[in-house]
């Protein structure tokens, strides 16, 4: 079974609105990463947040991490139609040395 | 800088046939990953290489799957014989030991087993 679980499974919003996706995990991590995947393509790394960080920004992306709740959120502000994609969180586990991906949130941004 | 290259992009075979996928990682990346991604799901790690050594192949179905990474650069993933349930996208990714764990993915090979 996958370590990370994204919520919601699917999200549909209008262009200009904000989109929030959540990720929960089970065991202690070194860092958590968010990736985007457009249909028929490979995954693209978006942002990485370390276990000792609480918030990270990159352009229109804002990621938070709450290690006490074992959860993270990805906020995309002022969404665009081009943001339509699946978004995955990946957790790098403390002792395993590998990342585990969730099943993703499918975001649809309507123009 | 060239990205991760995979070939072929698409492959259709009949069950019980063999199939092979090839991956060329980003130059200088010592870690290489093979993932399988089923429709509507996230990538699932099959095998991870550090240079030429397979350090994690716990999820690789060893009865029919094999992989190699000669000289610690290119890698090949093979399935023999293929089964209907092997239909999926096979993704290759690489990362640098000088990074923080960010993985760079290729476009994947979409395998259909009939």
What does it look like?
The complex is a heterodimer of chains A (111) and B (114). Chain A is globular, with a radius of gyration of 13 Å. With 111 residues, chain A is mainly beta. Chain A is built from no helices and 11 strands. In chain B, a hairpin with a 2-residue loop joins β5 (44-50) and β6 (53-56). Chain B is globular and about 40 Å long. Chain B has 114 residues and is mainly beta. In chain B, strands 2, 4, 5, 6, 9, 10 and 11 form a 7-stranded mixed sheet that branches. Chain B has a 4-stranded antiparallel sheet with strand order 1-3-8-7, with no helix packed on it. Chain B has no helices and 11 strands. The chains are: A mainly beta (111), B mainly beta (114). Chain A binds chain B through residues 2, 4, 30-31, 33, 35, 40-45, 48, 50, 88, 90, 92, 96-104, and chain B through 4, 35, 40-45, 48, 55-56, 91, 93, 100-108, 110.
Write the layout of secondary structure elements.
The complex is a heterodimer of chains A (about 110) and B (about 110).
Chain A: E1 5-7, E2 10-14, E3 19-24, E4 29-37, E5 43-50, E6 55-58, E7 61-66, E8 71-76, E9 85-93, E10 99-101, E11 105-110
Parallel strand pairs in A: 2-11
Antiparallel strand pairs in A: 1-3, 3-8, 4-5, 4-9, 6-7, 7-8, 9-10, 9-11
Chain B: E1 5-7, E2 10-13, E3 19-24, E4 31-37, E5 44-50, E6 53-56, E7 65-68, E8 75-79, E9 88-95, E10 104-105, E11 109-113
Parallel strand pairs in B: 2-11
Antiparallel strand pairs in B: 1-3, 3-8, 4-5, 4-9, 5-6, 7-8, 9-10, 9-11
